[in-house]
Amino acid sequence: MSSSTSSAPTRALKIGIIGFGPFAQFLVQTMSKQGHSIRATSRSDCSEQCAHLGVTFIRDMDEFLQSDNEVILLCTSIVSLSEVIKSMPLHYLKHPTLFAEVLSVKEYPRHVLLKALPPEIDLLCTHPMFGPESGKDGWKGLTFMYEKVRIRNEDICSRFLHIFASEGCKMLEMTCEEHDKLAARSQFLTHTIGRVLAEMQIEPTPIDTKGFQQLVHVKETTAKHSFDLFSGLFVHNRFARQQLKNLEIAFANIKQKLLLQERMNDKMDLSLSKY
C-alpha cells in the first residue's frame, strides 16, 4: 500500500461522466472549480442539473462516446453497472481514454470492466471514502482509495488522481480485493447496523446519552442512501456475507450471555429468599 501518489501537472482534463446523480454532481463542483472541462450523460434527463453546474449534457450515448473525452468516469449505481456497460457502443471510444469508476465495491467493477473494455483502454478503480455530507466542507484529510488496474498513459492517470490529491485527500493505493475485505468490515457493517436501527424505528429521546445520539446519527446517515446501494454492498462484495454471518453470531452470543446471567440472578434470588 502507498499513502501518496506521484506529483502531477495541473493541466485541465476533458472528463466525461456517465450517471449524473447526487454523487457525480458533488464531484463535479470541485472538478469544475479546478478548471476541468466536464460533459455528462445519463439515462434520465439531467440537462437542468448540468446547466446549473456548467456541465455539457449529452443525452445520446453514441455522441457522448465520440466526444473528445480523455477520462470517462463511471458514476452509476452498483446494481446498474453491468446493464450500463452492455448498452455502451464501445467501438466509438476515442483513444487514449482512461476509464475510472467510483463505486463502493471494487472487485466487481474491476471484473466487469476488464471483461468489457477493449484492451487498449486504461482502467483505474477508485473509491472516494466520502460524500456530499462528509465532504461538504472540503476534502482535506479524507481518504481516496485507488488501484491502477491497467495504465499505459501515466500522464492522464496522474492528472486525474491529482484532482483529489490537490484538495488534500489522503491518497491510498491498494488492491480492489483488499478494499473489499476492509469495506465489508466497515462500510457494509455500518450500513447494516443503520438499517437495523431504522427497522427498530429508533428516535431521539429527552434522556439521550452521547452514545445513543451517535446511533441515531448512524441510522439517519445510512437512511439517506438508497436500498440499491445497500444491497449492492452485499451482493457484489464477496466478503460481505461472512460479515453478516459474523454479526448474527455475535448477536446470538451476546443474547446467550444475557439469558445465562438472567438465570444466574434468578437462582441467586431464589437462594436468598430461603433465608
Helix and strand arrangement:
Blueprint: E1 14-18, H1 22-33, E2 37-41, H2 47-53, E3 56-57, H3 61-66, E4 71-74, H4 81-86, E5 98-101, H5 107-116, E6 122-128, E7 143-150, H6 154-165, E8 170-173, H7 176-185, H8 187-199, H9 210-223, H10 227-235, H11 240-272
Parallel strand pairs: 1-2, 1-4, 2-3, 4-5, 5-6, 7-8
Antiparallel strand pairs: 6-7
Helix pairs in contact: 7-8, 8-9
Written overview of the protein:
This protein folds into 2 domains: 14-174, Rossmann fold (3-Layer(aba) Sandwich), CATH 3.40.50.720; 183-272, no CATH class. It contains 11 helices and 8 strands. It has helices spanning 22-33, 47-53, 61-66, 81-86, 107-116, 154-165, 176-185, 187-199, 210-223, 227-235, 240-272; strands at residues 14-18, 37-41, 56-57, 71-74, 98-101, 122-128, 143-150, 170-173. Strand 7, helix 6 (154-165) and strand 8 form a beta-alpha-beta unit.
Given the structure, what is the number of helices?
11
Q: Shape from CA axes?
A: elongated
How many strand units? 8
Q: Would you give the CATH topology of the largest domain?
A: Rossmann fold
For the sheet with most strands, the description reads:
8 strands, mixed
Which strand order do you get reading across the main beta sheet? 3-2-1-4-5-6-7-8
- Arithmetic mean of pLDDT: 94
**Percent of residues in helical segments?**
40-55%
